[in-house]
Amino acid sequence: MANSNATDVTANATDTYLTGSNLGITNRIKVGTQFRWRFALTKTATGTVTPQLTVRFGTGGTVTDTARCSFIFPSIQTAATDTAWIDVEAIVRATGASAVVQAAARFSHKGNTTGFATLAAPQQLNVLSTGFDITTSGMNAGVSCHPGATGAWTFQIVSSHAVNLA
Prior knowledge:
Layout: E1 2-4, E2 9-12, E3 16-17, E4 23-24, E5 34-43, E6 52-58, E7 66-72, E8 82-94, E9 100-109, E10 123-128, E11 140-146, E12 152-163
Antiparallel strand pairs: 1-12, 2-12, 3-11, 4-11, 5-8, 5-12, 6-7, 6-11, 8-9, 9-10
């Protein structure tokens, strides 16, 4: 199963559900199901606070879906334009009414110590969800982004895949 964006997706200063990240997964999940999201993006010279990327599960396909794995990037962005690439992978470790998802994100950017982050090295983050019911009819998995209070990010590529489905 796959999905992607057809036009640029803009996240401006609020939590934004990324168009093209939504995957309909009702009754298709088993232990070992994998979700992969890949993003190519740019930022403007605004935004100087810590951004957050969130893996969500729910029936809305919007930011109203429950945050299950949140990645809070450890270095604060700077007031400089930049380009970046983010990979997120999540694996279902338990299913049913007590599902658990392990997720990891890798974030790299061109701006060395300016732009998206004050660190030149790629950042890698790992998050384990708490238990939740993944059996709800109409269940979706997707990603939202909050670029920070004054952030302006544009996602040129939103690529979403689910594999090893039931």
